[in-house]
């Protein structure tokens, strides 16, 4: 895994300048260090897509470790594919266009990049938005060795920013951890739980070295993420 800090870049291709800019603003709340470039609207600010904006976005987002493009509609994908044809072979080899929901996939990809995921890890995170959020696999022969139940105390519970902080922390441990049966290292899985203030989160691990991870994640939830 690459060093944390978002070395894989993202380009959000939308027919609307406001949508692309807004998605960067949203994702920036959870991935402040990741390179994210909006490529929305036509060159004159109208509704549509711009080959020049997409090509420029790839150049700006590329730090050498790859770029992931997400698009809102089919014609945006065509524009992105055209832009790829004009890239040098070396650059094109590290650019991926991902067919996934723009907002959910963009946010998931941004968090994956933020925690240091390589190009394929960021692609998988983006695709997870299209594949749904399955429960974390449970091996009946390996029941949880450690479990901790925490009541959420912050006003809005595990909304976007706290959920991202939770996932980032979970991803620093080698032990597999679940929260209410979902993968604690998946942003979309955690947010799908809809955990709000007063609800309980059961953090568990079946790994022999999972106690430290469960304790740290439980402490983070109990801290209220520094919110009032």
Automatic annotation (TrEMBL):
Residues 7-133 form the PTS EIIA type-4 domain. It catalyses: dihydroxyacetone + phosphoenolpyruvate = dihydroxyacetone phosphate + pyruvate. GO terms for molecular function: phosphoenolpyruvate-glycerone phosphotransferase activity. Residues 145-228 form the HPr domain. One of its GO terms (cellular component) is membrane. GO terms for biological process: glycerol catabolic process; phosphoenolpyruvate-dependent sugar phosphotransferase system. Pfam families: EIIA-man, PTS-HPr. Component of the dihydroxyacetone kinase complex, which is responsible for the phosphoenolpyruvate (PEP)-dependent phosphorylation of dihydroxyacetone. DhaM serves as the phosphoryl donor. Is phosphorylated by phosphoenolpyruvate in an EI- and HPr-dependent reaction, and a phosphorelay system on histidine residues finally leads to phosphoryl transfer to DhaL and dihydroxyacetone. This is Phosphocarrier protein HPr.
